[in-house]
Design brief:
Elements lengths: L14 H21 L16 H19 L4 H31 L6 H9 L15 H12 L23 H9 L14 H10 L1 H14 L8 E8 L12 E7 L1 H18 L9 E2 L7 H17 L3 E8 L9 H10 L4 H11 L2 E6 L8 E3 L10 H8 L11 E5 L2 E8 L2 H22 L9 E4 L14 E3 L2 E3 L5 E3 L2 E3 L6 H19 L10 H17 L9 H19 L7 H8 L4 H17 L58 H4 L20 H7 L14
Length: 706
């Protein structure tokens, strides 16, 4: 097959002529490799377990069945039909079992996840049944009106000119974008998987470059790539499904469109912080930041304020349908005001406007309809655009903190009493409400959660002071789940790891059927499932929370069952030998190993980007003098006696009654990994004396050397 030649784009195109040029040439490319690419499945009815014997038995059953119906009074025909039916269905069952056994026996590290998906299964999709929608067209319109409210404006014809500030597209950018594309990602309306475009770029790299270079230069996203499929799914646990709010949808975009979106996402993220588009307390959808960074910062600030003798409260909020309510004009205005390159502003406005979508469910009409979608949730660039859109919602709270992870916000206030905290949070919520109203978004009122933090030394009564938001009363909760972490007022870790244990047990029951005793998956694939599936579920949050010794023993009992399943050992096998045979270390060692990894990741992050790194003690050697402006560490200077912060590069004191900040203990977990010349030591200043009551200590021997 000869690689097609892409003609140049029109010299002074309009949006319509550029879209026509792109649609024509993309159609030529896809049609050419579609002719030379064999289909994986000829029809949707093809079964991998079908054999020639089943075809013979099916013909025998189909020939015996009419005779038994025609001569019902003849018992011989009836017995013959029953025997043919029994042998046919018995052979089908045996063929399925043989195919499943051979599939498990020949499984590879790549196909084992397919076996896991088959074993877990999924519930059948629920058909939407809405009152007043009697036909499929009315049902489709009701779902579209709920999922995409508002009437979208029609496409406008404009003349496009190349931008002088646009850097030419290079082949390396396309290669990096394709490297981030998953082979298992579901394609959109084009039905072309990512593997096809990876092979096209490997064989003829000029094809994708010639198609995308004019789009980047003119800052335009063609209408051909704005078509998407919306998979309608029911939300689990709803009491009834007679309302559109009981359903959600997943957007499947065209794979070729995602290549361009990843390129623009990379370019925009490289200038986002330099242009001031992001707040220092935003996590999620940003490189180098994760949920553990947000949780570590929250726990550190809460403990810092508590050690100063203040009462601390936190209000957790969730933006309602945030991605769907992003306004293209407002977002492009924000980018333009911050000095972002004009071609990025133009492409963002073009990407968010004039989109079409068709809903897919059982019996859907499959008709594309114009929608006002905001930022499509399946797009690689949508999370970054949304984070930039809500960055102005962050405002400073005196002796508090405003933190967010994508669309989840946490407002922390501290004062001399919990009731005063309620007043501060209500006033801060009123300010946020006016800001989100100007952005066209809103907070989901049923979802706010309030928690009053306590310490183990508090002897006063538990505060039940509620908060009033928009006419609703929200009482403080004894347990709050935020970003997958379960928080309690005293920050006890037992409820969190109890939930992790329950989730791991459910996953273990689902995959146990893949390897019954004597059959199924080989041991090395069972080891892969245990280390890649069960352990991450079981240990989620161990980089921030430290389980108690009693909880570690309960987790270890489950881990011993996993080790025994991996090797098919007897129940009387000693656990020490079991860990060696299964090549799965004891759980307490694995949990202790996660904290040094988290500490290394934090200390290797720039303090200008990573909030925990910017809050480490000044004695910690770092590559930058930057410290966070909203850090309340100076309040710890009032602590005396056993409540002084921990100095770094000195062995941790054995006394258990020494209170310290969570981030002060984090560097101690990685001392054995770093040498004394990790960074150049900072000079001792009066700020160090103020924050730690002692000068920076000289480099002490590492714990592994003492």
């Amino acid at each position: 097959m000869n690689a097609p030649v892409i003609p140049p784009a029109p010299p002074i195109p309009t949006t319509r002529s550029l879209d026509l040029w792109f649609k024509t040439n993309l159609g030529r490319v896809t049609a050419q490799f579609a002719m030379h690419t064999p289909l994986k499945r000829l029809t949707y009815r093809s079964k991998p377990w079908w054999t020639d014997l089943l075809s013979i038995l099916r013909r025998a059953y189909n020939s015996a069945l009419p005779s038994s119906k025609r001569d019902r009074h003849d018992p011989s025909f009836l017995a013959s039909a029953r025997a043919a039916r029994a042998s046919y269905f018995k052979a089908i069952k045996k063929a399925k079992m043989d195919d499943w056994s051979s599939f498990l026996a020949a499984a590879t590290p790549q196909s084992v996840w397919t076996a896991k998906r088959f074993a877990v299964g999924r519930p059948p999709p629920r058909f939407p049944e809405l009152p007043g929608a009697n036909t499929l067209e009315e049902l489709n319109k009701a779902l579209l009106d709920h999922l995409f409210p508002g009437e979208p404006p029609g496409p406008r014809e404009t003349i496009l000119l190349p931008f002088a500030d646009c850097q030419p597209l290079e082949t390396e950018e396309i290669s990096r974008a394709l490297a981030r594309s998953s082979l298992s990602s579901a394609p959109g309306p084009d039905m072309t998987p990512n593997s096809v475009w990876k092979r096209v770029h490997r064989v003829a790299p000029h094809i994708i470059l010639d198609l995308l270079a004019p789009l980047v230069a003119y800052g335009s996203h063609p209408l051909t790539l704005k078509k998407a499929d919306g998979i309608v799914l029911d939300k689990p646990g709803k009491p009834s499904y007679d309302s559109p709010s009981s359903f959600r949808f997943i957007v499947l975009l065209q794979t070729f469109s995602k290549i361009l979106e990843r390129i623009m996402d990379s370019r925009l993220s490289s200038v986002a912080r330099a242009c001031g588009l992001l707040d220092q307390h935003q996590c999620g959808s940003l490189a180098g930041l994760s949920a553990s960074d947000a949780t570590t910062t929250l726990t550190h600030e809460v403990r810092t304020l508590q050690m100063a003798g203040r009462k601390v409260s936190t209000l957790f909020l969730d933006i309602k349908r945030g991605f769907d309510n992003v306004n293209a004009s407002s977002l492009s205005g924000m980018l333009k005001a911050k000095g972002v390159n004009r071609y990025l502003v133009s492409w963002t406005r073009s990407f968010l406007s004039d989109r079409t979508c068709r809903l897919l469910y059982q019996g859907s009409p499959k008709i594309f309809a114009p929608v006002s979608v905001g930022t499509p949730q399946g797009s690689p660039v949508s999370p970054l655009l949304f984070v930039v859109y809500v960055s102005r919602l962050h405002s400073e709270i005196p002796m508090g903190l405003t933190f967010s992870y994508v669309d989840n916000f946490g407002l922390t206030a501290s004062s001399a009493s919990y009731r005063r905290n309620i007043q501060i949070l209500q006033r801060q919520y009123a300010r946020l409400k006016s800001k989100v109203a100007r952005l066209g978004v809103s907070f989901s009122i049923p979802k706010p959660e309030l928690i009053h933090w306590r310490t183990n030394r508090d002897r006063g009564p538990i505060s039940n002071a509620p908060i009033h938001l928009d006419g609703s009363v929200f009482k403080p909760k004894c347990q709050v789940r935020w970003l997958g972490y379960s928080f309690t007022p005293s920050m006890s870790t037992t409820p969190h790891f109890t939930k992790r244990l329950a989730k791991a047990q459910v996953a273990f029951v689902a995959i146990q059927r893949l390897s019954p005793p004597g059959t199924g998956l080989p041991p090395f694939l069972c080891h892969l499932l245990a280390s890649s599936l069960l352990f991450p579920v079981l240990s989620y949050g161990a980089d921030v929370f430290v389980p108690t010794s009693h909880m570690v023993r309960k987790l270890a009992v489950f881990w011993h069952k996993v080790q025994r399943w991996t090797t098919n050992c007897f129940r009387s096998t000693p656990t020490d030998i079991l860990a060696i045979e299964a090549c799965l270390p004891p759980l307490d060692l694995l949990l202790r190993y996660k904290r040094p990894l988290a500490a290394v990741r934090i200390l290797c992050s720039p303090p200008e980007i990573n909030p925990p790194m910017a809050r480490l003690p000044p004695s910690v050697q770092r590559p930058s003098l930057y410290r966070h402006s909203r850090d309340h560490r100076s309040l710890s200077a009032k602590n005396e006696g056993s409540r002084l912060p921990l100095p770094w590069l000195q062995p941790r004191p054995p006394s258990k009654n020494r209170a310290h900040l969570p981030l002060d203990a984090l560097p101690h977990s990685m001392l054995f990994l770093l040498g004394p010349g990790w960074f150049e030591p900072l000079p001792v200043t009066s700020q160090h004396l103020l924050c730690e009551h002692h000068p920076a200590p000289p480099p002490a021997p590492l714990l592994s050397q003492t």
